[in-house]
Design a protein that fits this description.
The chain is α+β, with helices and mostly antiparallel strands. The protein has ten helices and eight strands. The two termini are about 40 Å apart.
C-alpha cells in the first residue's frame, strides 16, 4: 500500500512538473522542504534546544513523591508504635521530598550559557545548510537552462545544415556539384547529430542533479521557467568588502563563533564543579498501619486477687481494681494526619580527591577551546579564499563574455560571406564548413560564458548574503 501511494504521488508530481514550468523559487522551496541534509540539521537544532531547556530546568528545585504499601507477616515492627508485633499487618508509607542547589560554583548558570550558545550554533548550522542548498539549487537550475540553451542552439545549427544537405542532394542529382561537397555536408550533419545527442544527455543529467537536490523523483518532461542571462556588469564591490560583509551575516562564521564561546563556557562549568555544592532539602512524610488502634475505658470493677493477707491468723483476699477497655482501629485519615512529620536540612558536598578527574575535565575543556579557536580561524581563512576565488571567476567570466561577443560578430560576418559564396557555387564546402563551425562554436561558447557569468555572480552574491 505504501509503495502504491508513493507511486501515485510520484506520478502526480512528475505530471505537474511536466505541465507547469517550475520557477526557481518553487525549486528552492521544494528542496528546503525535502532535502535530508537540511532536515537533519533541523533535528540537531531541536536537540540543542531541548538540551538548553534541560539546563534551565536544572536550576529549579527537584520534587519527588513516594507511596509504598505492603503486608507484613510474623514478627515485625509496627510502624505506628515502633514495637514488635507477631501478627499480620498492613502498612503504608507516603512522602514528598524537595531539594534545590543553593551554590555550585556557578556551574548551573554557566551550563545554561554554554547550552544557549550551543543552540545558537546549531541554528546557524541549520541556516548554513539552507544557504548551501539554496545556492546549489540556483546553480543546478541555471545549469539546466544553460544546457537547454545550448541544445536549442545546436538544433538551429542542425536545421541549417539539414537544409544545406537537402539543397546539395538536389544539385548532386543534377550533377551541378562535385559529390565531395555533398559528402562533406553529410558528414557535418552526422557530427552535429552526435553533438545534439550528447547535449541532450547533458540536459537530462542536469535535470537529474536538480531533482536530487529537491529530493523528488526524476522527471524528463520537467520544464523550468526561463531566466534572461543578463550580464551583471563589472562587479563594483571589491573582494575585501564582500569578505567584511560576509563576516557579519555568514551563518558558517557565526556558528564557529558560537561554538567557541560555548566551549569557553564549558571551561567555566568544569571549573565550577571543583567548588563545594550546597543543597537545601525538605521532606514531608506520614504512614499508616492496620494494627494501629485506640482503647476506650468501659468500666472499673473491684475483684479479689489470688493474693492473701493474714490478720489475726485469718487470711483475707487482696482486692484489686480491673479496668475494661474497648479497642477500636484508628481510621485511615486520622493516621495520615496524626503521623505527619517534616524535616529540612542543608548538605554541603566538598570534592576533596577523586583521582584528579575534575581537573582533567577542566584541561580537556580548555583544549576544546583551542580546537574551536583553530576552527574559527580556519573558517575565516577559507571564506576569504573562497570569496577571492569567486571574485576572480566572475571577472574572468565577464571578460570572456566581452571577448566572445566580439568573436561571434566577427565569425557571423565571415559565415555570411562564406554562405553566400557557397550558395552561388563560388566557395568550397571546406570554406563553408570552417566558417560555420567557427560561428557555431562561438555561439555555444558565448551562451555558456553568459550563464557562467550569472552563476559566478550568484556565488558572489551568496557570500554577500543576497540570494535573490
Amino acid at each position: 500500500m505504501k509503495k502504491l501511494t508513493y507511486l501515485i504521488l510520484s506520478l502526480l508530481y512528475t505530471t505537474g512538473m511536466a505541465q507547469t514550468p517550475l520557477s526557481l523559487k518553487e525549486c528552492i522551496e521544494t528542496a528546503l522542504k525535502n532535502n535530508q541534509t537540511v532536515n537533519q540539521a533541523g533535528i540537531q537544532a531541536q536537540s540543542s534546544e531541548i538540551q538548553l531547556r534541560r539546563s534551565q530546568l536544572n536550576k529549579l528545585p527537584g520534587v519527588n513523591a513516594s507511596i509504598g504499601h505492603g503486608i507484613n507477616q510474623g514478627r515485625s515492627i509496627d510502624p505506628f508504635t515502633n514495637s514488635y508485633v507477631n501478627n499480620q499487618l498492613g502498612y503504608g508509607n507516603y512522602g514528598v521530598s524537595a531539594g534545590v542547589i543553593l551554590f555550585s560554583g556557578g556551574a548551573l548558570n554557566n551550563a545554561v550559557a554554554r547550552d544557549r550558545l550551543g543552540y545558537e550554533a546549531a541554528r546557524m548550522d541549520l541556516q548554513q545548510a539552507k544557504d548551501n542548498l539554496t545556492i546549489n539549487v540556483i546553480l543546478a537550475y541555471l545549469t539546466v537552462l544553460t544546457n537547454e540553451e545550448v541544445l536549442n542552439q545546436m538544433q538551429n545549427q542542425l536545421e541549417l545544415t539539414r537544409k544545406q544537405v537537402e539543397r546539395l542532394e538536389v544539385l548532386n542529382k543534377d550533377g551541378s556539384i562535385p559529390p565531395s561537397q555533398l559528402s562533406d555536408l553529410q558528414g557535418q550533419y552526422a557530427g552535429e547529430q552526435l553533438s545534439l545527442i550528447n547535449t541532450r544527455n547533458s540536459v537530462e543529467s542536469s535535470k537529474l542533479t536538480l531533482c536530487r537536490l529537491m529530493n523528488v523523483p526524476y522527471s524528463s518532461p520537467m520544464t523550468l521557467e526561463k531566466i534572461n542571462p543578463e550580464l551583471p556588469g563589472l562587479y563594483g564591490a571589491r573582494a575585501e568588502e564582500v569578505y567584511q560583509s560576509a563576516l557579519q551575516h555568514f551563518a558558517g562564521i557565526k556558528a564557529a563563533d558560537f561554538r567557541l564561546k560555548s566551549a569557553e563556557k564549558a571551561v567555566d562549568v568544569a571549573r565550577g564543579e571543583l567548588w563545594p555544592t550546597l543543597r537545601l532539602g525538605v521532606n514531608v512524610n506520614t504512614n499508616y498501619s492496620s494494627a494501629a488502634s485506640t482503647s476506650t475505658l468501659l468500666n472499673t470493677n473491684t475483684v479479689a486477687s489470688s493474693d492473701f493477707v493474714s490478720v489475726g491468723g485469718t487470711q483475707y483476699p487482696v482486692m484489686r481494681q480491673v479496668s475494661n477497655y474497648a479497642s477500636d482501629n484508628i481510621p485511615y485519615g486520622r493516621q495520615l494526619t496524626g503521623n505527619f512529620f517534616s524535616s529540612f536540612g542543608l548538605s554541603l558536598n566538598i570534592p576533596v580527591f577523586n583521582g584528579l578527574e575534575q581537573r582533567n575535565r577542566v584541561k580537556l575543556a580548555r583544549l576544546t577551546v583551542k580546537n574551536n579557536e583553530l576552527a574559527a580561524r580556519t573558517a575565516r581563512t577559507e571564506l576569504d579564499q573562497a570569496i577571492d576565488q569567486a571574485a576572480l571567476n566572475l571577472q574572468t567570466a565577464l571578460e570572456r563574455c566581452e571577448t566572445l561577443e566580439q568573436q561571434v560578430q566577427a565569425f557571423k560576418a565571415s559565415f555570411q560571406a562564406a554562405e553566400t559564396r557557397f550558395n552561388e557555387g563560388v566557395g568550397t564546402s571546406i570554406d563553408y564548413l570552417t566558417a560555420k563551425n567557427n560561428l557555431d562554436r562561438a555561439n555555444i561558447n558565448l551562451i555558456s560564458a553568459q550563464y557562467e557569468a550569472v552563476l559566478r555572480s550568484k556565488v558572489l552574491n551568496f557570500y554577500k548574503g543576497d540570494l535573490e
